[in-house]
Amino acid sequence: MWVKVCGMTRVVDVEHAVAAGADAVGFVIAENSKRRVDADMLERLVAVAGEATTVLVSANQEPADVVDLALRIGMDWVQPHGSSQDQVIASAMSVGLAVLVPVGVDSAVSPVDNVPASVPLLLDTKVRGQDGGTGVTFDWTLARGIDRRFVLAGGLGPANVADAIAAAQPWGVDAVTLLEAAPGVKDHTKVTDFIRKAKGL
Fold first, then answer.
1. pLDDT of 91-134, one tens digit each?
2. 167's torsion region: left (phi>0), alpha (psi -120 to 50) or beta?
3. What is the overall mean pLDDT for the chain?
4. Which helix (H) or strand (E) holds 19?
């Protein structure tokens, strides 16, 4: 099971997540996020990520700015939310950056036909006015039967990740809110427990 821990803002939290076995770590540059990091901090955080996949999370930002930042710092993937999503996806793929495509889920999983089937989706709870990090779950069984790789997100934590995996059968899982002591500050015990339970350890 591929595990991503998102919303990183501190070097010590990145180091802990990677040591605990996280496959990926996410960094938010969205202007309105409580977990936003600037370019200087982003560079420091990515530098300690080791072999973990680094994911740049944007929202409603200029595609060229997002892609240029990811390339300059040497990040692996981009995860674009908001009105510029399609343009960021196209721009990132044109220069060889991998993409994780967020899809909001309420009563159904919306079809995605603007990216190749090889590109993984990030299924997250749709909440008006929020681009991820809601801490709210959706009906995981809605994800069953999706015939492409997808990462399950939305209100996941140590207490429910095993049940979520059993119900949705994802390729990966992603968590933010339920792994925090405060916005942007990770609770290391929760991070470790989440990773272990997601991987069935």
1. 999 999 999 999 888 766 766 777 788 899 999 887 665 655 66
2. alpha
3. 92
4. helix 11-20
* The pLDDT value given to residue 133: 61
Q: Find where tokens 């919303």 sit.
A: 7
Query: Among all residues, which ones are annotated catalytic?
Result: 6, 124
For residue 182, with 0-12 CB atoms within 10 Å meaning exposed, 13-18 middle and 19 or more buried, which class applies? exposed
d(CA 112, CA 132) in angstroms, rounded, equals: 18
Closest by CA position to 41, among listed 5, 67, 13: 13
DSSP string across 53-81? EEEEEEES--HHHHHHHHHHHT-SEEEEE
Mean pLDDT of all residues in 170-197:
97
Work out the angle at residue 66's Cα, subtended by the Cα atoms of residues 65 and 70, and round it to the nearest 5 degrees.
Answer: 115
Annotated domain spans of the chain: 2-198
Q: Give dist(CA 37, CA 11) in Å, integer.
A: 12
Query: Cα–Cα–Cα angle for 125, 131, 133, nearest 5°?
Result: 65
The 10s digit of each residue's pLDDT in 143-153 is: 887 888 999 99
Q: What band does 186 get if pLDDT is binned at 50, 70 and 90?
A: very high
- pTM score: 0.93
Query: What amino acid is encoded at 86 in this protein?
Result: D
Q: For the structural domain made of 2-198, what CATH number should be given?
A: 3.20.20.70
Q: Is 146 helix (H, G, I), strand (E, B) or coil?
A: coil
Phi, psi dihedrals of residue 11, rounded to the nearest 5° = -55, -45
